[in-house]
Amino acid sequence: QQQQQQQSLLHMEILRMKGVFHLKGEECRYVAQAVHELYEKRATTPWGDEPPCNRLVFIGRGLDAELLKSSFLSLLQP
């Protein structure tokens, strides 16, 4: 099943990605942006009263939302 998932990921064409992340122990939110192979990540403003969260948005072709979600969630598991 893992090999099948890797093959599916290879067939997705991600044109753009934008995300906001909460990193453990950090007071500021982190923003990541990507266009094709170029990406940028940086710390921005503190969360303040807003509850910290992780949010990703993808624009592309042949994207499998559930596969992308499960792939990223697997990175968060110990």
Let me know the average pLDDT.
Answer: 86
Helix content: 25-40%
Fraction of residues in β-strands: 35-45%
Radius of gyration: 14 Å
Main β sheet profile: 4 strands, antiparallel
- Please write the string of helix (H) and strand (E) elements: HEEEEH
What spatial form do the alpha-carbon principal axes imply? Answer: globular
The end-to-end span amounts to: 21 Å
Structural class by SSE content: alpha+beta
Uncertain stretches of 5 or more adjacent residues: none
Q: Strand tally, please? A: 4
Number of helices: 2
Side by side, the strands of the main sheet go 3-2-1-4
Question: What features would you highlight for this structure?
Answer:
4-stranded antiparallel β-sheet, 42% strand, single chain, 78 residues, 2 helices, 27% helix, alpha+beta
